Amino acid sequence: MKKKLLHQGKQSIAATMRRSLKSLGSIPAYLDWYWQKNQHESIYFYTFHKCASTLFSNYLLKQIRGLRHIDYANQIYLGKQKQAQDFIFAKTGYIYGPIRLSADPRDDVYRFLVAPTSQLGFIADKRAIFFIRDPRDILVSSYYSVAYTHGYSPVAEIQDRQAKIRTQVQQMTLDEYALREVVTVKQHFLTLWELSQVCQRGVVLKYEDMIENFNWFAAQLTKYVAVEDKVLREMFARSRPKLSEDTTSHRRSGLPGGFRQKLQPATIQAVNQQLAEILTKFTYLN
Questions:
Q1: For the domain 38-281, what is the CATH code?
Q2: How far apart are CA 68 and CA 159, in angstroms?
Q3: What is the pTM of this model?
């Protein structure tokens, strides 16, 4: 009797599975449905160069629970990705980034990564974190990085372009560079603003809050991603500004508002005028 009931039970389970699979169309369709229901939805991490993006790439994004980190930009930089079909964006299970909207439009990073992911239609229904820094500090940090400290890519084509740009920038003063690049930086911020407004499930976080009000920053971050306390403590330690400026280091200082000591007053005034819309939108003080 027990064997008969067990057999009937197995038949019932099998019949239920067959009906479910039939309604879904196929076993692969069923598996796709199952994983979509049981995995964390993918997240996109947008930012700029000189916005602590390396810290996020090398540490924090790798520590998000339930999501695997994919850094396509770094793969391109190291010469590992070259074909459009290599760049896959899954609905679930991954955190993609950093996606640096400041990438050079001539580079493969822009063509294969930034261009498709910066379309408004792409991000509208996705989850995203937008990480920003005072654009005036970005201008200063970018000057020292491009002119002196940023390492070269092992990819010959990228390396040649980096060397040419470095030579050009080394012939400029910091103020000249800031005045030349401010319009480009403004456009990068406008792109991020548009993406953040279209994205229905995104958050804008600031570098300055990470430095000056870490507990609040961590509380906002963990509304969108699962991060263990020990990871947050390590992130706090790694993000602390240097006690003194080191112009030979990739991480020169990290103190918010450093542009006020580095740029001439007339340059700051001109930059503020150019960035007025951005400073207002993202609530940065003049």
A1: 3.40.50.300
A2: 29
A3: 0.81
